[in-house]
Amino acid sequence: MHRWTGATPPMPEERNFFTDGTAYERLMGRWSIPVGEVFFEWFAQPEGLRWLDVGCGNGAFTELIVARCAPAEVQGLDPSEAQIAYARKRLGARLAQFRQGDAQALPFADDAFDAAAMALVINFIPDPAKAIAEMARVVRSGGWVGTYRWDLTGGGSPTEPTTAAMRSMGIAYATAPSTTASRQDSMRALWEQAGLTSIDTRVIRIPITYSNFDDFWESHSVPVGPAGQAIRDMVPSAKEQLRDPLRVRLPADPQGRISYSAHANAVKGQVRRQGWKPAAKARNARN
């Protein structure tokens, strides 16, 4: 077994893992798009809605909302000023408005949106239950709230090969405050706790492929996310101690490609306040 002898990186109680939009694109951007596409197909919302993207990051998911949903309005919110700045530069997200803010205290009025979604972020929120309750508050009765996140406890993240190697070697890295929130049963419980109805869950699976090992390593060692920031803090010899066994664990195909799979858990639910009726039934009742 390869034994870790490098320095242990610092592990502060709180750390902003995602402040660099370009680095995030290198690490996760290519995988966030295909998993987001499947989510939208399953979330199945009509055109012309008012959307809220909670934890919008660098705007990749916001861009998908614009492209796939023909929204009337999109608001994106994220705690990182740098990520918001990157999102505002996305040509495909020009319809959207972005602001800095906290998912646990949304700066919007009750019933301000028709749909709210949170992409790949729920486990980074210190109090996920508060964030879901806030999303339900700002979505009108009859609207929908959804999220998806890589199944971290089930080894579903695209970064799992790297983090698994780090764990096996005893390399410490900071973790998000709510890792178990990525589990499917945890998501369902959070949606139930928020009073959402018609709750449904699913697993989204996508293939992960890198052109070669260097492509894999350069993506996973960018200084963004828990593992990437830990790798950034290592001395060069320590990085090699991690890189060499990873190369062995990830054999390439005849073309040199590195391939494996990732999966995310998703949940959706409907806001139903007292007195709400589906639109068709409401019209019939008036006739």
How would you sum up this structure, described in words?
This protein is an alpha/beta fold. The protein contains 10 helices and 7 strands. It has helices spanning 21-43, 60-69, 81-88, 128-138, 160-168, 184-193, 213-220, 225-232, 236-249, 279-286; strands at 50-54, 73-78, 97-100, 113-119, 139-150, 197-210, 258-270. The chain has a 7-stranded mixed β-sheet, sandwiched between helices. Strand 4, helix 4 (128-138) and strand 5 (139-150) form a beta-alpha-beta unit. Helix 1 (21-43) packs parallel to helix 2 (60-69) and helix 5 packs across helix 9. The longest helix is centred in the first third of the chain and has 23 residues, at 21-43. The protein is elongated. The protein starts with 20 loop residues before the first helix and ends with a helix. 41% of the residues are buried.
